[in-house]
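Module 6 notes. Inverse folding takes a fixed backbone as the condition and produces residue identities as the prediction. Think of it as a translation problem where the source language is geometry and the target language is the twenty amino acids. Below is one complete input and output pair. Work through it position by position during the lab.
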């Protein structure tokens, strides 16, 4: 497992961060929508914290929420005419064909894979989030399309300058090196320590099980980002003032 690295331009200031590493690499937790890690647990998927299967402005602000390198968000009929586009990986469904808040068709993104280029970015215009982990679910057909290597980055300027590497996964990290074993399967990553707060997160996919089969050999059913909002700086200031007031009162007493 490669330790996370802080990437920055020459013009940017270097900021030291505590490396975030896997607790147990990528653990396979089940198949289908019921296997998504926020179901029946206290873990909060920050892409849909109220679990209404819609990423709305109350949750992620009014900025562009999701941008992907395969098909435009909001285009529900892609090259395969099956509604396979990036928004579907945040619909809270890890299954086959669906009719839901993100449109009809298959509940996944596919295909047009370029290793190291294919990516998806999630941005909040209002809040920073600290991650404790995440999950990735593969698709429902063609095992060769299952992702086997990816990187997760965080940023607070929309990746204009700041790009912080939070996690790196290769096939050796998935299920102890055995890889995926079924369709519609969810793999969970748990961090040893929470990350710093970021307003944007980006997954870059570097390999699939066999990207030599065809040039569009990639698919993904679902991503969950598990974490919590980071309090505004003003909140910390208020807490600090309250603590100072209590200390002064104790001294006077």
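Target side of the pair, the amino acids:
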């Amino acid at each position: 497992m490669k330790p996370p690295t802080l990437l920055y331009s020459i013009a940017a200031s270097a900021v030291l961060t505590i490396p975030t590493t896997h607790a147990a690499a990528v653990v396979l937790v089940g198949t289908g929508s019921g296997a998504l890690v926020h179901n029946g647990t206290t873990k909060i998927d920050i892409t849909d914290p109220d679990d209404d299967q819609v990423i709305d402005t109350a949750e992620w602000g009014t900025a562009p929420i999701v941008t992907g390198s395969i098909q435009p968000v909001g285009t529900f009929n892609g090259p395969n005419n099956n509604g396979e586009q990036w928004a579907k990986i945040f619909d809270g469904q890890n299954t086959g064909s669906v009719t839901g808040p993100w449109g009809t068709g298959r509940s996944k993104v596919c295909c047009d894979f370029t290793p190291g280029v294919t990516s998806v970015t999630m941005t909040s215009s209002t809040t920073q989030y600290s991650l404790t982990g995440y999950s990735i679910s593969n698709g429902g057909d063609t095992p060769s399309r299952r992702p086997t290597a990816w990187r997760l980055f965080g940023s607070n300027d929309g990746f204009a300058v700041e790009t912080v590497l939070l996690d790196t996964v290769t096939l050796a990290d998935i299920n102890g090196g055995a890889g995926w074993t079924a369709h519609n399967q969810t793999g969970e990553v748990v961090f040893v320590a929470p990350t710093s707060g970021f307003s944007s997160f980006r997954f870059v996919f570097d390999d699939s099980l066999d990207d030599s089969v065809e040039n569009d050999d990639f698919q993904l059913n679902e991503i969950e980002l598990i974490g919590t909002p980071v309090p505004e700086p003003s909140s910390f200031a208020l807490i600090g003032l309250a603590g100072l007031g209590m200390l002064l009162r104790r001294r006077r007493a």
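Reference fact for the lab report: The chain has one domain: 6-252.
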